[in-house]
Amino acid sequence: MKLLATALFSVTFGILIGLSFPYLWITKASLPKTLLRSIALSHIYSDTAALTQAIHNPKIWVPSNPQGTERLPPGIIASESDLYLRRLWGNPEEDLKKKPKYLVTFTVGYNQRHNIDACIKKFSDSFTIVLFHYDEKVSEWDDEFEWSKNVIHISVLKQTKWWYAKRFLHPDIIAKYDYIFIWDEDLGVEHFDAEEYVNMVKKHGLEISQPGLDPEKGTTWQITKKREHVEVHKETDEKLEWCSNPPRPPCAAFVEIMAPVFSRDAWRCVWYMIQNDLVHGWGLDFALRRCVEEPAYEKIGIVDSQWIVHQFIPSLGSQGKEENGKSPIEGVRDRCHMEWKMFESRVDNAEKEYFKSLQVQSHSSSTTFQ
Questions:
Q1: Sorted alphabetically, which PANTHER family does this protein's record hold (predicted)?
Q2: I want to staple 320 with a disulfide (CB 3.0 to 4.6 A). Which of 76, 169, 207, 331 is the partner?
Q3: pLDDT value at residue 367
Q4: 103 three-class SS
């Protein structure tokens, strides 16, 4: 009994002392400052160690973060961007009076400046405009055209629009734009209105499109010729051996690479299909159907109500080099045909390898026209 009573008394006394201890002993007046500082630092190091452990635990951020950003909290990541021009001063939220919904790019040389001037005037302030300069002449445009000071200029000598597109038009960089126009410089636009064109594309549900071409000014493919009294067409009659069922390029699901227009979703696919080293884009037009949902011939079409003229100015050909007795333009043309064959081979081989990995027979779906 004495032992039990002593134990109970000791426990009770210990609890009372413990409750009173902070007030009786731990005060700034009764402990050395160095000891208090050591206690505080121990808490800081403990918190830092816990944070470090959390940061280095890949299970925290990986499910939502892009690859390589595992050490960042998800709320700070800006994975997409735009080409909006911003001020160097003021409140960032007040930079833009209007956010353009569409993007148009032209690959240009100074000799075609008057043609480009006419084109630019067809696009409203709903468009961000980018000029890719292949001849390095940029300041001259500012001297001649007032609008030039409000567009984006990118200058790299002797490159094509697909080289520029692969390097400057990543889908995450232009994610704010509903439609992307990637056009050549030799286009007549007297009968074209950009806003009306977008309205037609939306109305007919086109993911990839182009304006109709004046049939009197020279065309390459039957399907791209403008038709009378219709807004849009998606199929045509070519040579019988070219067309299949369901219809495919060049009889349907086809636009040329001179003046294509892509939806945001379609461009995300097309950008990845563009090859880094194949710069002319030949063969790409036959493969674009891969970047829309089937049936592709319903999502790709020609807008007849807004049409253009292809002027066939071989200005980029003059940027080539005379070699082996061939003129600059002949060398460029040979490279175009070479790239077409290379692109066709790459896509077909990639498809075969994929189906082989699945241990199934490849579909008969040739990428390009033979």
A1: OS06G0731900 PROTEIN (PTHR31210), TRANSMEMBRANE PROTEIN-RELATED (PTHR31210:SF57)
A2: 331
A3: 54
A4: strand
pLDDT of residue 247: 86
Tell me how far apart the alpha carbons of residues 83 and 165 are, in angstroms, rounded to a whole number. 13
Listed in sequence order, the DSSP H helices in 137-263 are 139-144, 161-168, 194-203
| Token reading at 40 | 């505080």
Nearest to 210 by CA among 141, 173, 261: 261
* Residue 359 confidence (pLDDT): 83
Closest listed residue to residue 109, CA positions, set 158, 60, 170: 158
User: Three-state SS for 183?
Assistant: strand
Return d(Cα 185, Cα 259) in angstroms, integer: 9
Residue numbers of the chain with a pLDDT score lower than 50: 21-51, 53-55, 58, 370
Query: How far are the Cα atoms of 10, 17, 27, 278 from residue 22, in angstroms, in the given order?
Result: 19, 9, 7, 76
Cβ proximity of 264 and 179 under 8 Å: yes
Q: Are 290 and 346 in contact (CB under 8 A)?
A: no
